[in-house]
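Regression test attached.
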Amino acid sequence: MRPLTRNTRDAGTTALLLLLLTHSAIESAEIRDRITPAQMRQRQATTTWKRTTTSADRDPRIKPPVNQSIIKESVIISDGHFWSLVPKKAILHISERQRRRLVDKPVGKLLPWKQFLGRNRSWLRTLEVDIPTAAGNTPISNDSESSWAKRDCIVVAVHRGGPISVKRSETEKPPATP
Amino acid sequence: MRVSPVVMKSPLIAGTIALLGSSLIARADYSSFIRQYQQSSGIDWHMPVELQGEDLSPLTIEEGGALFQLWAINLDTWQDYLIDQKLVGAYLPKGEITIITQDPYQIVPRTRADQPFEVHFEVSGLLSGTNLPDAATKVLIEQYATPYPQESLTVTSEEALTLTRDQALTGDPIRSDYIDENGVTPQTFATTSLTGTDLTKVSGEEWFLMHVLPDLDALQTEIASAKIQIWPVASGRIDGLSNGETVRMQAPTLTVYLDDLYPSSSSYLQIYPGLPALGTVGTKISGSILILDQDKSVDRVLTVRSWQTTMQQEGTYTMELLTETPFGIDRLDYVTFTLDRTLKVRSMMTTSE
């Protein structure tokens, strides 16, 4: 049995193998008959490790890393032709007229957030927030709130260009979005 | 996705994210981004990323840890894929899983069903002592073994075969154990752990996960993962030449059936004088050589003609069907025949007057 090697390409070994394959004499190679199913079964049985048998054996603290969907865990914004997604609670303000842009199912073609924002700046705005604000430790300034309150637009919180959720305090009025 | 927390001078800890190559990330019809979810505060951030590179996460790593997820969404079908995820925390243990096989293929660890491989579980940051929570003293490792769907094996598409996380991690793990020591814990597997009627013909993926054991209600517990592809053992047969047959001037046309050829393999017919002797290095038959260097196993049928020139003298010969892989050379089939080129004339002499 050949010694195990790390999963990295060894150009020298590969080149040598190709060279050997072009010649009919492979003196150093050992030829064996194909393993049979019975031999395979015996070989598999030699692996020894603790085995989980039923669901009851699983540690209840472990979260199954399945059934996740970033789309289902986000808010979808659509302009009728394209759509993008932002984290839930990333929308800080939404006017009545623009509520129709929040959809349950995607409409049109998916665009990365930056491209989608660039296409829809007439009604889509962003507010750069810092981490304490995103964590709800610092409220959003009144100036910011009042600047968009009367505008017909959607305001999304971003941090370094990426949409970010904002934890609003109980005294702050949420925008009533998903 | 590799996440390496870097301790700065301030109490803040930044996460450095290095994106490794992924077949989905590299395609232009996918939109990719990293999601950072802070387990304690609930901050959810979509960080746009380039196809390959490094970037610094400016969010602090909270006590409950930060979950980094690499997502890819198909721009046309809207199907989202969780490519990788890692849970990182200042007070959480850190883990890495490395899989070592005999196949030097770089894109993803892979091996053949009958071949051994090693899994190294590397843990750091575990504490020892009394009255410590489980999250600080041990991690849980799990193994999943999921076969490729049968219908996907018959598709002739050139696309690589791969399971999504949901497909690979559905159901219960087949093995699990706790690690309570820092360092590398190696585990050797003699063969694949996939099951089936014929173990030489199973194919699929084995995933290995490492979890922390948090006390709080964490969104996720996984801190490391790795997977290995398992491909079947090839089989084949030589058709058109029977055992004990006599070949005369023109050699019969051969049909060579090859099933489940390993993605990186060279298969061919060889011939040598005499009875079968396993291990004999013979002469390769021109026109029978098939070299593969690809992402998945395949079936092939070859037609070999005019191979009689490989034999110089009359007598008994053995023809073998061989396949060479990173794991060695396997004989899939062989046939013994006799070469007799002597022209025999049967006649009867008569005279007439």
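Expected vs. actual: identical. The first strand of chain B starts at residue 2 and ends at 7.
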